[in-house]
Each structure stands twice: as structure tokens, then as C-alpha cells.
């Protein structure tokens, strides 16, 4: 309709232009013959015709401009009308589809109501039961999604907190490296000085032997390490000289990480961390070491497991639990099952479970066999856990079992010297850990 109207207007305008141009052509045609004795009249008539021609051309140009403007407006209106018509057609199609769907659904509902009259009561009960089961499953699914979102928010909070701690600790350690000062004493530290007269200590026992007795962060360089690294030294527990290799106490650090993370180490050396398999191998792979494991539940009960022999193989050996023996303590021996096993992570499966991956199934990284009786790098799950999360927490089977995730766990090593006791003194350990031993 709009298109026909526009075409008519444009046609009229074209005809008017043609007529005007014809009249201009005829009127402005110069006369080619002259009469003798009438030059004056000729010049005058020529001047008049020239003025008329200019006036007609001016009017023509003005009319052409108006026609062009009207044409552009009409084209714009035509496009807008076409767009609106197209939009209306789409809406009409959508309405028709909705009406058709509604009619179809109404028809099915009517047929269902009619057929229901002829169905027996048992069939109705079966349908209702199926519907109730579906509703219940949907409700459970929604609850799982909500729980997952809560866990995700909690993880995000932990990550932000840990990033902040790492940034602060890194800045602090950088300043210490620059100034070569010991963080745990007000005086210059032998542990952080790298001078030719006094080499860097191989471990925390070496630092202790030089007279330092305050627990804290020190720099060491084991015999076969290419460069020094920072460690936390415990100078108090059972004679001191211990190097922390694992520390967890609040769940702020994610331990469900990959092989390279466990190889090089991660976390905050002043908080939760894993020292790194390569560093642990450098500390324990060439000399006889002892291991102390400290555990705490959410009721503040503290227990320990001491091993007089502990050593980790190289990366080529899969960082296997190469040496383990001489257990004593009150936590129970939940590590002996893992003796000889290679270390596994979720992206490097070296366990003996042929059908699966213990690290993935138990949400951790450990010396899994097929699979475990301890999982101190598992998830931080806050005490008692449901059956479907069994074995996934930070657990020690002989202490609280696989359905209890511990509050704290620490692992520390030191070289066995001639003065090392055959077992950790319960009294000295209790003085460090508390009277619950």
C-alpha cells in the first residue's frame, strides 16, 4: 500500500520535471535569423529571454531539490514501514505458534482427562508415585547445586585470603633477601647470610647446631640442591631441628593440585603449604632422616606418629616412599601401608589401582597404593563427613577413620644423628602439643 502511494508521487514529480525541461528547452532556444534595422529590438528580446531562462532554471533547481528531499523522506518512511510490517509478521507468527501449542496442549489435556475416567486407581497411583519421585530428585538436584555454590563461594574466599597472604609474605621475604636479615631475631641472621666464611645450612638441624633456638623461617641449601630455599624450622618440639614439609590448620590453601605444584611446592611458608617433592627428596634422599607427624581433631585432641627412618626417592623413581620404619606414637601407624608407593596426583596416576585414579577419587595427592589408609593432602572438610565423601578428607585411618577430616596436620623431618633418640619422647612432644597426648 505504502509502496504504491510512493510510486505515484514519484511518477507525478518526474512528469513535472519533463514538462519544465521541455518548456525551458523551447523558450531558451536562440533565434538564428536577424532582421536588418532591428538590432536594438533583437538585443532587447535576447536579454529578456536570457532572464526568463535563468529564472526557469532557478525554479527547476529548486523543484528538483524539493523532489529529492521528498523522495528521500518517502524512501525512509517506506523502509520504516517495511521494518514494522516485518516485525508485526514475526509477532503474528509467534502468536500463532503459541496459540497452536496451547491448542495442542489443551487437546492433549482433554484427551488425558477423558482417558483418565476409564483408567483404574492402581494406574493413577503409579503415575503419582513416578511424579513424586521426579519431584524429589529435582529437589535433591537443586540442593546439590546450592551446596556447590556455597562451597564455590567459600573456595573463592579462601583463594583471595591466600593470595593476599602470599603477596604479603613474598614482599616481606624480598625485603629480607635484600637486607639479609633473619625474620625471627632482631640481629643479622646466619641463616639468611650467604658469605664465604659461613656457608648456608643444609637443614634446620645445622641451623640449630650453630646456636639458633627460635622457631621460624630460615634459608637452607641441602647438599645436592642447586640453590637455597626458605623453610620453616621447629626448634622446640622433641629436641628441635625439624624442617616442616607439610602444614595445614585452617583450610585456606587448596591441596587438590597437579604434579608440577607438588613437585616444586606451593602455599605460604608461614601458613599452609607443601614444601615440594624435589625439596623433600633433597632433604631425605641421601641421608637417614626421621619423620614426625602431628595431628589435631576439631575437639583439640592432639596425637602424633614418629618414624625413625624416612626417605623419598627421586623424580625418576616417582618420588616413592623409599624408606619408612620405626613407628612409635599414639596416632596409629596409617603410613606403613604406603611404604614403597610412588607419589600420585590427579594428573599423574602412579598408584596400584588399575581401574581408577586414587588421587582423583579421593581428592588429594599422596603415596597411594590401591588406595590409602591416610590422605593428609585431601580436602579440608571440617570433622565428620557423610558416606559419599569418605576417604576424601584430610584423614588418618588409625585416628578418627576415613569419615573424619582433621583440623590440623603437620609433617616434619630431621637428620638422624648419633644423639637422635630411637623414638620421640612423649613428654617432650606433649610439652609442645598439649596434654592430650
TrEMBL record:
Residues 53-80 form a coiled coil. One of its GO terms (cellular component) is fibrinogen complex. Residues 195-417 form the Fibrinogen C-terminal domain. Residues 415-437 are annotated as: Disordered. Keywords: Coiled coil, Disulfide bond, Glycoprotein, Secreted, Signal. PROSITE patterns: FIBRINOGEN_C_1, FIBRINOGEN_C_2. SMART domains: FBG. GO terms for biological process: positive regulation of heterotypic cell-cell adhesion. The keyword Signal applies. Pfam families: Fibrinogen_C. It is found in: Secreted. Residues 1-25 form the signal peptide. GO terms for molecular function: carbohydrate binding; extracellular matrix structural constituent; protein-macromolecule adaptor activity. Its main location: secreted. Lectin involved in innate immunity. Agglutinates all types of human erythrocytes, Gram-positive and Gram-negative bacteria. Has a stronger agglutinating activity towards Gram-negative bacteria than towards Gram-positive bacteria. Specifically recognizes acetyl group-containing substances on agglutinated cells. The hemagglutinating activity was inhibited by EDTA, acetyl group-containing mono- and disaccharides, N-acetyl derivatives of amino acids, other acetyl group-containing substances, propionamide and benzamide. This is Fibrinogen C-terminal domain-containing protein. It comes from Phaedon cochleariae.
